[in-house]
Design goal:
The chain has 14 helices and 13 strands. It is of the alpha/beta class. It folds into two domains: 141 residues, Aspartate Aminotransferase, domain 1 (Alpha-Beta Complex), CATH 3.90.1150; 248 residues, 3-Layer(aba) Sandwich (Aspartate Aminotransferase, domain 2), CATH 3.40.640. The strands form three sheets. Strands 2-9-8-7-6-3-4-5 form an eight-stranded mixed beta sheet, sandwiched between helices. Strands 10-13-12 form a three-stranded antiparallel beta sheet. A two-stranded parallel sheet has the order 1-11. Strand 3, helix 5 and strand 4 form a beta-alpha-beta unit. Helix 4 packs parallel to helix 5. The radius of gyration is 21 Å and the shape is globular.
Length: 405
């Protein structure tokens, strides 16, 4: 067996299952899950219709590169959303089966495990806390992950200035998530300028995970990586690949439909890898994806539901926890240790046992790095259900925390 598999840690939800095996939920309360970031708003009917109207596509093998119609729809959405000049949909855009599998696969394309410096082998730089796929992708590509802790004083942006030069020399791939999971933080143009300058100096590829970009709470939509590159005059988006998905934007997590876009040279190699990997998207899913990318009204309505929900629930929870409205995304990232120093895992376990509400301990979403675990004593709450269920969960959390004081 591949010995690199032994480096993988259990996924956060497996850790949560083990934690909850030590507790019996209170039967007086129906279960409410705020642990998994799976959208629960209804899938728009027009997307379902586009899917069922194109079931005949199941009779054909799909192309890994995707249909011209899908790549054109994705390119058009990127141009409208980020104010980009016209993209070459044949070379700068590639459909993928959800951002998760593409985030993993890109590392297998980019990393050269044989390239070493005096300091050691290749590194994949990850934010901390982070989406665990980044770590697994690093290990299985033959690299090691290097975690950069988020800085609460800078709205949880990773503290890249703390990274020494000998580490940067080993970095071949850098993952960034903006809007961030779990913090909701969004990089600004100065942050992107810093990253691009580092990429130019050290030659690493930037993988920009932007799957939460369409759920935001300010009048200004989150800045995207391609948009930042365009504003900074980086023609051709050198060493930059942006990832997005329909899962959150359009409430279709089961379709597993997303895209990568950016540097044509990187995407050419990525397409070669994917051709052998067998990553073609079903023609029926491609047709439904075209419909989804070409419509914005359902996205506006979906975002409005999140805005109303967060505006109602965040103040309730802020009365008892250290939590505030994020820049974007559908998570609340709450500090829970004000009550006698209770840990994030104990908070989650007792909340589950006493009120049958599931939240995810923040320490499960981060690693001990540079002397700290930046997720420690925080919990992630995914407000993905309809408003009544989320309100009931918030009322139970308030009651639980008042018992702790």
């Amino acid at each position: 067996m591949n010995p690199l598999l032994d480096k993988l840690q259990p996924y956060p939800f497996e850790k949560l299952r083990i934690l909850f095996s030590q507790a019996t939920p209170n039967p007086d309360y129906s279960p409410i899950g705020l642990g998994i970031g799976e959208p629960k708003h209804p899938t728009p009917p027009f997307i379902l219709k586009a899917l069922t109207d194109n079931l005949a596509g199941l009779a054909s093998y799909p192309s890994t590169a995707g249909t011209d119609a899908l790549r054109t729809a994705i390119a058009g959405w990127l141009e409208r959303r980020y104010g980009l000049p016209k993209l070459n949909h044949a070379t700068q855009v590639l459909p993928v089966n959800g951002s998760r599998e593409a985030l993993f696969a890109l590392a297998q394309t980019v990393i050269d495990p044989t390239r070493r410096t005096d300091g050691g082998g290749p590194l994949v730089m990850c934010p901390n806390p982070f989406y665990q796929i980044y770590e697994g992708a690093a290990y299985l590509s033959g690299a090691e992950p290097y975690f950069v802790n988020s800085d609460p004083a800078r709205n949880f942006a990773p503290d890249y200035k703390s990274v020494p030069a000998d580490i940067w020399q080993r970095v071949q791939l850098l993952y960034i998530c903006s809007p961030g999971n779990p913090t909701g933080a969004v990089l600004n143009l100065d942050d992107w300028k810093e990253l691009f300058e580092l990429s130019d100096r050290y030659g690493f590829v930037i993988a920009s995970d932007e799957c939460y970009s369409e759920i935001y709470f300010k009048s200004e939509p989150p800045l995207g990586g391609l948009e930042a590159a365009h504003k900074l005059g980086r023609a051709g988006y050198p060493r930059l690949i942006s990832f997005s998905s329909l899962s959150k934007r359009s409430n279709v997590p089961g379709m597993r439909s997303g895209f990568v876009a950016g540097d044509a040279d990187v995407l050419k190699k990525f397409l070669l890898y994917r051709t052998y990997h067998g990553s073609a998207m079903s023609p029926s899913i491609q047709a439904a994806s075209v419909a989804a990318w070409n419509d914005e009204q359902h996205v506006i309505e979906n975002r409005a539901k999140y805005v109303a929900k967060f505006n109602e629930i965040t103040p309730m929870l802020a009365e008892v926890l250290d939590v505030s409205l994020p820049d974007a995304g559908f998570y609340l990232w709450a500090k829970v240790d004000r009550y006698g120093g209770i840990s994030d895992t104990e908070f989650a376990r007792r909340l589950y046992a006493e009120y049958n509400v599931t939240v995810l301990p923040g320490s499960y979403l981060a690693r001990e790095a540079h002397g700290i675990n930046p997720g420690q004593n925080r919990v992630r709450m995914a407000l993905v259900a309809e408003v009544d269920e989320c309100l009931e969960a918030a009322r139970r959390i308030v009651a639980f925390t008042k018992k702790l004081s």
